[in-house]
Amino acid sequence: MTTLAASGEPGWLAAHRDEIRSRAATEGWVRIRGLPIAGRADAAAAIRALTDEPLTEREGFAPRTAHGDGVHSSSEWPPDQPMCMHHELSYRAEVPRQLVLACVTAPADGGATALADARAVLADLPAELVRRCAETGWRLLRSYTGVVGIGWPDAFGTTDRAAAEAYCATHGIEASWDADGTLRTTQRRPAVVRHPVTGQACWFNQLAFLNEWTMDPDVRDFLVGQFGPAGLPFTTAYGDGSPLDRDTVDHINEVYDKHTVREPWQRGDVLVLDNILTAHSREPYRGSREILVGMGEPVRVEPV
């Protein structure tokens, strides 16, 4: 990880913007420490200074609070629950290549945004798993029940069914409605992609994070009891539709753990991630924690 010490002088970010973005695009991430961030306005200004082509989030899983154009809160996730390794919005047809996170309030304990190099993860996964995922991609299945996560109006930014269906059709998502109004969607995306700048192959998906076997066992049992195995709010499969077994999902998460690095947040920290080169997670924490986030540089990734 590269850590740059900011001087705190006006214009420091603008003067170092190109270096920061270039290093993130090849090294995977850059942490900037010591910026004079006194509140949300300062954090939002830092994010905007480093972000090109802000991306509006669609198809999200957890609520966020907007803080002006292109800036929002981190996902609202229970503090005592980990958010496992993933690449932001990697299930979309168009994904953000860059994430910028700025710390307004550091937690009293825990809460790190942990990181893992997608190139190293790919190299360490079983060859047969990589081959299968490279050939078939991965599949995300969602049921917008309203019990877990956000409902489809928030996910698609509309209360109009026809508009939601049009979005799905445009973005390669199969959609159907149950009689009770539940929207079910399926989308297939590449699981191993080529980075648009470096050309390197990267493990880029949420195959393990969004799979039912990564859920808390009690939560999974409750959801299966409520909706049946086919009605889970979300799960994943191989691109050909074949289910993943628990051992495979556990092994993917173990490889992520092996390559995880973490650094506790400090107020004023800004973390610039290349979303394709780097997976990230959020660890459990105590106390208040406020991290603002910006996503930018939307791209359509190409499979290897």
TrEMBL record:
<dbReference type="InterPro" id="IPR050411">
    <property type="entry name" value="AlphaKG_dependent_hydroxylases"/>
</dbReference>
<keyword id="KW-0408">Iron</keyword>
<dbReference type="InterPro" id="IPR042098">
    <property type="entry name" value="TauD-like_sf"/>
</dbReference>
<dbReference type="GO" id="GO:0016491">
    <property type="term" value="F:oxidoreductase activity"/>
</dbReference>
<keyword id="KW-0560">Oxidoreductase</keyword>
<dbReference type="GO" id="GO:0017000">
    <property type="term" value="P:antibiotic biosynthetic process"/>
</dbReference>
<keyword id="KW-0045">Antibiotic biosynthesis</keyword>
<dbReference type="InterPro" id="IPR003819">
    <property type="entry name" value="TauD/TfdA-like"/>
</dbReference>
<protein>
    <submittedName>
        <fullName>Protein AmbC</fullName>
    </submittedName>
</protein>
<dbReference type="Pfam" id="PF02668">
    <property type="entry name" value="TauD"/>
</dbReference>
<feature type="region of interest" description="Disordered">
    <location>
        <begin position="56"/>
        <end position="79"/>
    </location>
</feature>
<feature type="domain" description="TauD/TfdA-like">
    <location>
        <begin position="13"/>
        <end position="293"/>
    </location>
</feature>
<feature type="compositionally biased region" description="Basic and acidic residues">
    <location>
        <begin position="56"/>
        <end position="70"/>
    </location>
</feature>
